[in-house]
């Protein structure tokens, strides 16, 4: 008799973003005259840049000619792209060999799949609030107990509080943990960890033989030169951390799909030799994944050309200008807001006594603006609300105008 993986039954709710989409649809059906302004999901809106488009076209043309046609590629990714990534990190002073890079179809699949190479009884620590994929993927694979509605937490997971008081970066876990998810610039709070903050975690991980899973999906949004863009800027990190990133937010690849995971040869856990963990991820990927699209990889390569980098940085600047508009708009209304400076998310405090979901309904019904309830990122997000800077300029401006005119504070 076949049975389902019962861990799915433990999941507290539907995945956050489809749930928001469902409520939005329901609202729109009841209020067809309302023009909605979407600052919810962090989804890119601006066109691909000319360099990327030329790369993608080259990829298509290669397939149109038997002399350059290619079928399945290496599961780890195209060697030239892995080299381009290694060179890019090296231009920032980080030495990693191209064999440390594994190309994928995005940071979401990698951040949910990576846990599979670690022991099923690993103790998992997450920032609270956090990108929900880290928690949900570990619930599905059985590393969490039941969900407590009262606490908003799963038994067995370690929630590292990120609050206004600690600048949204957690203290070290009090008890020993094995896998630590860190995201900087942070989704959803927009906080960016400093060298000193990350060094503490690296030292903890080395001491406790834990692994840091570092999600750097928004690294290109850091403009402050003093802030680290990669965990590998921290001394000793190669022995205890792996890093996940993608072109989604840097080059508008949310629908094109291309990401990578860096598993340094030096990374070790209890009982492994250098290179063993890297081999494990290779084994996992070559069994479960057949490589990123060869067309997309050709497009990705052009992101790392001189023109590609320049254009992608302009794209980032465009979204960060949106962030500034949102930040100024909410601050003018006297709303407490965080993030939005080295990250494309503005993390606002809901009015006293208003829960995150109540504020979602209030903002939607009074202003037509869709955001993301903070509690969807974990219990630590309750009382907060995320506004995304990804959007067309006119939509961002219309949203802020409507908030200014219609939100009853
Ligand atoms: N990592 C973080 C921290 C993210 O916020 C997101 C996207 C990803 C990874 C996904 O990267 P891909 O390379 O595109 O796979 N977060 C968005 C989209 C929601 C979602 O479900 O991925 C957000 O609004 O939080």
* Overall pLDDT metric: 96
Helix/strand structural class: alpha/beta
Residues in β-strands, percent: 5-15%
User: How many β-strands, per DSSP?
Assistant: 15
Which homologous superfamily in CATH is the superfamily of the largest domain?
Type I PLP-dependent aspartate aminotransferase-like (Major domain)
CATH class of the largest domain: Alpha Beta
Q: Portion of residues in helices?
A: 25-40%
Radius of gyration: 21 Å
Task: Tell me briefly what this model is.
With 409 residues, the protein is of the alpha/beta class. The protein contains 13 helices and 15 strands.
What order do the helices and strands come in, and which of them pair?
Blueprint: H1 7-10, H2 16-30, E1 37-38, H3 50-64, H4 79-91, E2 101-104, H5 107-113, E3 124-128, H6 132-140, E4 147-148, E5 153-154, E6 158-161, E7 179-183, H7 195-208, E8 211-215, E9 241-246, H8 248-251, E10 259-262, H9 276-288, H10 294-303, H11 306-332, E11 337-339, E12 345-349, H12 356-367, E13 369-370, E14 372-373, E15 384-388, H13 393-406
Parallel strand pairs: 1-13, 3-6, 3-7, 7-8, 8-9
Antiparallel strand pairs: 2-10, 4-5, 9-10, 11-12, 12-15, 14-15
Helix pairs in contact: 3-10, 5-6, 11-13
């Amino acid at each position: 008799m076949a049975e389902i993986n019962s861990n799915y039954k433990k999941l507290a709710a539907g995945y956050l973003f489809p749930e928001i989409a469902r409520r939005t649809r329901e609202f729109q059906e009841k209020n067809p005259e309302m023009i909605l302004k979407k600052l919810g999901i962090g989804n890119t809106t601006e066109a691909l840049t000319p360099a990327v488009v030329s790369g993608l076209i080259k990829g298509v043309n290669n397939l149109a000619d038997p002399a350059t046609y290619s079928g399945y590629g290496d599961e780890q990714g195209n060697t030239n792209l892995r080299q381009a990534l290694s060179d890019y990190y090296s231009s920032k002073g980080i030495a990693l060999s191209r064999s440390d890079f594994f190309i994928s179809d995005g940071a979401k699949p990698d951040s949910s799949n990576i846990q599979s190479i670690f022991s099923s009884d690993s103790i998992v620590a997450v920032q609270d609030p956090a990108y929900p994929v880290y928690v949900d993927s570990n619930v599905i694979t059985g590393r969490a107990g039941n969900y407590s509605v009262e606490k908003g937490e799963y038994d067995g997971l370690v929630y590292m509080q990120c609050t206004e008081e600690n600048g949204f970066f957690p203290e070290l876990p009090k008890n020993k943990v094995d896998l630590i998810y860190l995201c900087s610039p942070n989704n959803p709070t927009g906080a960016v960890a400093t060298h000193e903050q990350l060094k503490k975690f690296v030292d903890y991980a080395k001491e406790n033989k834990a692994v840091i899973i570092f999600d750097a999906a928004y690294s290109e949004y850091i403009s402050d030169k003093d802030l680290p863009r990669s965990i590998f800027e921290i001394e000793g990190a190669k022995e205890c951390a792996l890093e996940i990133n993608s072109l989604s937010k840097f080059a508008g690849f949310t629908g094109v799909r291309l990401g990578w995971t860096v598993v340094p040869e030096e990374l070790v856990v209890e009982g492994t030799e250098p290179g063993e963990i890297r081999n494990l991820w290779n084994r996992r990927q070559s069994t479960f994944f057949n490589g990123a699209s060869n067309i997309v990889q050709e497009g990705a390569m052009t992101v790392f050309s001189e023109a590609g980098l320049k254009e992608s940085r302009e794209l980032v600047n465009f979204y960060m200008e949106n962030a500034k508009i949102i930040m100024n708009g909410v601050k003018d209304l006297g709303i407490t807001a965080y993030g939005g400076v080295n990250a494309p998310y503005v993390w606002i405090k809901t009015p006293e006594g208003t829960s995150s979901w109540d504020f979602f309904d209030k903002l939607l019904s009074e202003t037509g603006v869709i955001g993301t309830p903070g509690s969807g990122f974990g219990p630590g997000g309750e009382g907060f609300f995320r506004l995304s800077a990804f959007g067309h300029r006119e939509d961002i401006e219309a949203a802020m105008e409507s908030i200014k005119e219609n939100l009853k504070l």
